[in-house]
Amino acid sequence: MNLSNLTFANPWFLLLLLLIPIFILWRWAKRDEQFPEMRLSTLEAFSKTTSWKAMLRPSLFLLKLLAFTALVIALARPQNTFTEEKITTDGIDIVLVMDISGSMLARDFTPDRLEASKEVAARFIKNRPHDRIGLVVFAGESFSQTPITTDQNVLNSMLAEIKSGIIEDGTAIGMGLATAVTRLQDSQAKSKVIILLTDGVNNSGFIDPLTAAETAKQFDAKVYTIGVGTKGKAPYPVRGIFGTTQLQYIDVQIDEELLQKIADMTGGEYFRATNNTSLQQIYDKIDLLEKTEIEVSTINRYSEQFYFFAFLAAIALSLEILLRNTLFRGIT
Description:
alpha/beta; Rossmann fold; 2 domains; 6-stranded mixed sheet; 3-stranded antiparallel sheet
């Protein structure tokens, strides 16, 4: 019996428990009838007459109280309540496409563009527990880091493993977008969304970004594009002669015109993030634009528990009757 989930179908019967103090007072008031007075000059003759029967005599009344209490609880019909929530959602399938080229190590974001993008993406994933999300990374080529899934533990684990330098360097925007479309081509979701983040200009790969965008449009996938990088120059880490790391300021070049075209072709939007705060705000806006509709149905199941108390009342009452008519016969 789980007491934390215990409820009563007929709780008003519990008011009968208020009679227990009255029974006790009545029993106390009747004690003179059970113990009549007798005046004696000395009690020496009765000093060793106390028996175990006399000591256990009050147990009969206690058994009656126990039987009454258990019967009242049984009449109140205790039940264990089990609540189930059935969630129906018009899910959205989302693929996060992340640039992991060497330029993503620029430190115009804290600690750098790539780590800042991973942190914001992790918060975005956490806020969408009912959507299927996949991860695609690209540099000079692209590959799927995680297929679309609702398993947030897997997503967070694979997101944490993303780092620059694991594939050939470059910026193959078309390849990254095409890989994301491939992940969504068999999706039956009501909405399909791609969030493509890059800090550069397409200079690698054998798929034209606009061709990939046209394919995304054919599969009804909406593409939100994000250009990451400050305006002007940004500090890039450069390895020095003696193995030390130095910062070198290099012009930030983002093909905003291309990213805008990709977004326009697919019904999405283009955003420019120049620091950690603006990047977070962009993801927050996309989160609001692509809100998942969730319907929660609550189902309550009840398990009757009055049998135990009814059985306890029957046992206590039967035991009281048995003792009163056998061991304690004639003294009650």
